[in-house]
Design brief:
alpha/beta; Rossmann fold; six-stranded antiparallel barrel; 39% helix
Length: 500
């Protein structure tokens, strides 16, 4: 299932009319050649924008080609009015994004007729974008030779994908947040600021839809998929698979029926305390399977958790998860795995955990679909597991990771954090979907970002180092409060200023 955008790149070169248009044309051709070397598929508009009529012609050209991510290339100084008019009209289409980048000078031997002044032109372009109140993606250093510009365009692709995805995303929720988890608060106004639609539903709606799928003929096929994924040793409670398969089909059918004008979707579903007694299973394994298909399902009606997972899915182009920043790692476990821990200190480590929503493809050998221990303690402590069945238990494989969260504060302001680290290849001696995670200077990050800024306990986890891409994406989305884990040489606001 394709639940993430396909980016269609296009490039338009611009030229100030007192400069030779051939300079921009030559430099655009060189950029296209470098893009081809990188395997980037980009539509090359042959229209050179020197005036407003050219801007309209270029707009018609790229629209006809199906472009949804535009590169405005200042091959020379560029006309700031027409080039930003092009950007304005292009991005008026929902989900379209625009990047501005400029050409560096090529040779000290050709600075009379061959000088383009695009370095200066980027300043005017930026000023005019501000006058039009337009957001554009501008790289960290937006001026370079052909190979540099091609590399910047490659970095732009996931940023454009997120922009397009959020503008066409609908988040479905079922049930209010559990009382004990009000930390996952979710003011919805900032979702609309991002272009995200939300449809909040009752748990009764979900139960009714689930019951309507009794004896659905597709259930048997989904059971076979589950059996193949779990294997003989991992399928500890095969008797619960029909209900889990029925639930998976219910969610997918709900999305198809209710997607409306959106193209992509995610879920934020209540999963306790009444879910088990009403549905007679826990939904964790189904959540894990849908997330592996690129359809994030956040637990505990964590709306911004679902949004976070979706962004990570687009940026990493792979399966992600949502974990509690859960517990410290005991000293004896660290000592027993000293070689794996290496130079990390105990304060750099924590255990990430959730009941069993992490996808099978992210777990080590030995993963099992079984019962959820916490629910069994509460609901059926003295009997064989029944309504607590349906979770996926296992340790997460060693990997580079990026912790990420996009969250609204209680007063509806968007804030975010990014921290790169790794899952260590060591035992947890625990339960659920879990891992020992190492993040440099985690203790300070925990105190001065997570606690200080009142983030909830759920963290999105992407299985690659994608901090730079996330940072660039958030800036493009207009989010200015972005926290990262600082090295010990740098202090957080409010942190004790003297080094120990």
């Amino acid at each position: 299932m394709n639940n993430t955008p396909v980016v269609k790149l296009g490039i338009v070169a611009v030229s100030r009319d007192c400069f030779p248009a051939t300079l921009s044309e030559k430099r655009r051709i060189a950029v296209i050649a470098e893009c081809e070397k990188m395997g980037l598929d980009i539509y090359e508009s042959k229209v050179i924008v020197e005036n407003e009529k050219d801007a309209l012609a270029a707009l018609d050209d790229i629209n006809a080609a199906g472009v949804n991510a535009l590169v405005v290339f200042l091959g020379n100084f560029g006309p700031e009015g027409p080039e930003t008019m092009l950007a304005q009209r292009f991005t008026a289409v929902r989900g379209n994004s625009v990047m501005f980048v400029a050409a560096a000078e090529e040779s000290g031997k050709d600075l009379i007729n061959g000088r383009g002044d695009a370095y200066c032109g980027m300043l005017n372009a930026s000023y005019n974008l501000g006058l039009r109140k337009l957001a554009a993606y501008i790289p960290e250093y937006p001026v370079g030779g052909a190979a540099d510009v091609a590399a910047m365009i490659k970095e732009y692709v996931p940023v454009a994908a997120v922009k397009n995805g959020l503008a066409n995303l609908k988040i479905f929720t079922f049930g209010p947040r559990p009382y004990d988890f009000l930390a996952c608060n979710a003011p919805i106004a900032p979702l609309y600021d991002l272009g995200v639609e939300i449809q909040e539903n009752s748990e009764l709606d979900l139960l009714e839809a689930f019951q309507a799928h009794d004896n659905d003929p597709r259930i048997e096929g989904v059971i076979k998929e589950m059996e193949a994924e779990l294997g003989e040793n991992g399928n500890c409670y095969p008797g619960i698979l029909p209900k889990l398969a029925q639930f998976e089909i219910t969610l997918l059918d709900w999305a198809e029926k209710n997607l409306g004008a959106a193209k992509y979707f995610a879920f934020a579903n209540k999963c306790w305390p009444a879910f088990q007694t009403m549905f007679k299973f826990v939904p964790c394994y189904v959540n894990s399977r849908l997330t592996a298909k690129g359809i994030p399902v956040a637990c505990e009606t964590d709306i911004y958790g679902a949004l976070t997972e979706y962004i990570l899915t687009v940026v990493t182009d792979s399966t992600v998860t949502l974990l509690d920043i859960n517990n410290t790692v005991p000293a004896d476990l660290i000592s027993e795995n000293a070689k794996v821990v290496g130079d990390y200190t105990a304060k750099d480590l924590f255990m990430g955990f959730h009941c069993g929503n992490t996808s099978a493809c992210l777990l080590k050998e030995g993963k099992k679909m079984q019962y959820q221990l916490i629910m069994k303690r509460n609901l059926e402590p003295d009997s064989e597991p029944n309504v607590s069945r349906g979770t996926l238990d296992g340790e997460i494989m060693a990997s580079d990771i990026t912790l990420f969260r996009l969250q609204s504060t209680a007063d509806a302001k968007l804030i975010s954090y990014i921290a790169e680290g790794e899952v260590l290849d060591m035992p947890t001696n625990s339960f659920g979907g879990r891992a020992v995670i190492a993040v440099p200077e985690m203790a300070r990050f925990y105190r001065h970002v997570l606690i200080e800024k009142r983030y909830p306990h759920h963290a999105g986890v992407g299985f690659a180092h994608v901090g730079r891409t996330l940072f660039n994406t958030l800036k493009y989305l207009g989010i200015t409060d972005i926290s990262v884990n600082l090295p010990k040489e740098l202090r957080y606001p409010g942190e004790y200023p003297y080094f120990n």
